[in-house]
Amino acid sequence: MNYRMVGFILGRILLVESALMLLPLVVTLAYGESAVFAFCLPIVLSALCGAALGIRTPKNTAIYAKEGLVIVALSWLVMSLFGALPFYLCGSFSSYVDCFFETVSGFTTTGASILTEVESLEHGILFWRSFTHWVGGMGVLVFVMAILPLAGGRSVHLLRAEVPGPSVGKLVSRLGNTAKILYGIYIVLTLIEVLLLLAGGMSLFDSLIHSFGSAGTGGFSNRNLSVGAYDNAYFDVVIGTFMLLFGVNFNLYYFLLLRRFQEVFRSEELKVYLGIVFASVMMIAVNLLRFYDTFLQCLRYAFFQVSSIITTTGYATADFEQWPSFSKTILVILMFIGASAGSTGGGIKVARIVILCKSSYRDLQRMLHPHAVTTVRFEGKPLDEKTLRGTYVFFSIYMGIFALSILLLSLEHFDLITTFTAVTACINNIGPGLSLVGPMGNYSGFSDLGKLLLSFDMLVGRLEIFPVLMLLAPSVWKKPRRFSPSKKPCPYEIEEDA
């Protein structure tokens, strides 16, 4: 383990977070609010800690897979610990655990909240709360790589560990340029949404808040009733459409810029993603006919909630807790499916669902025709066994953590629907569930241990399990054994790399 390089990158992360906190501080000063100290102290603390760790570049800057996984997990944890300080110092939260839960929910773009009332919060606090969505949406390390050099060619391990999906590669030869391209697309789409919301009559502050939430597919709003507080069909269409756009693999937007339209139209994941959205909207709209006056209204609310849930954003325009069981069941299924790989959305990802279905079909075919040579193809290319095995391992561990989290959270003595959907919403980075954690509910009723468990689930879901598990593995932190030249190692022992 290259501890010096781990500390160096964590220092850079803290320096960047310190700079990011300047934006909500400016908002606080612009509105003449009292939370100036709540931002100044964390800015100074994170800057000092960051300078102590990240000013001097280590001699050995090598980063391998192990270091990449550990750095990503530690970065998100450290960002959340320091990012919770403004919430704690502003006095609007009852405990630091609540602040940590809210911050983890923000950076992981989950949108689960312990707040029962948000409209009374100061503008600077609300801005920081939603801005964490925007930073966490594309990824903390991707953001840092876009503005600061980190570790040369080996930093691809950071990108692979942080970007969601079965696999990740470089769009261009230099990884820093890849990060800049991704964030350039991200910024442009965010600005377009802000302008469209402004054109519809939404205030600049509200436009920024909801654009941050849509871009990061997070779901924090500055209104108690979320987007439903506006009761505006135009806003529903704009925000719903952009949620879907941010749920698309960002590589496809890069292909559009290069005018490689055939690659976009041939994307198997995009077709499945849009097909699921269309089928879900139509089924829910038909199921809601007795709830609303016209079919157009049914389409409006169905479209927005399907967009919000499949992209794991969590905004709401209606209390879908009151919808029929059929519609709620569809939404719960969409919670697990999630958005596309390489997007800002959470969930298992459409790509993995397609791969799992195809590989299951192949195994059934092998049972009927044992000697047949069959391959699993995705996006027009055959998948190797390593990719398939990785998908199986991810799904197995995912279900294991999911089941264990439900079992542990059931000790809180809430009803089964609340417990089940709370874990589902957190591990898939969605936010609202059903029953007590529904779109008009919150997570304030859980104990501190329950909130920490759900915070762990949010981190596991956003980082897709392996970085967090690597961080918890004792073998990662052990020093490698070195054998004396005069002593011949036992043939059953394997010498570890330095």
UniProtKB/TrEMBL annotation:
K(+) binds at T109, T110, G218, T312, T313, N429. It is found in: Cell inner membrane. The chain crosses the membrane at residues 9-30, 36-56, 68-89, 131-151, 181-205, 233-258, 270-289, 330-355, 391-409, 458-477. One of its GO terms (molecular function) is potassium:chloride symporter activity. One of its GO terms (cellular component) is plasma membrane. Keywords: Cell inner membrane, Cell membrane, Ion transport, Membrane, Metal-binding, Potassium, Potassium transport, Transmembrane, Transmembrane helix, Transport. It is a multi-pass membrane protein. Its main location: membrane. InterPro entries: Cat_transpt, TrkH. Belongs to the TrkH potassium transport family. This is TrkH family potassium uptake protein. It comes from Oscillibacter hominis.
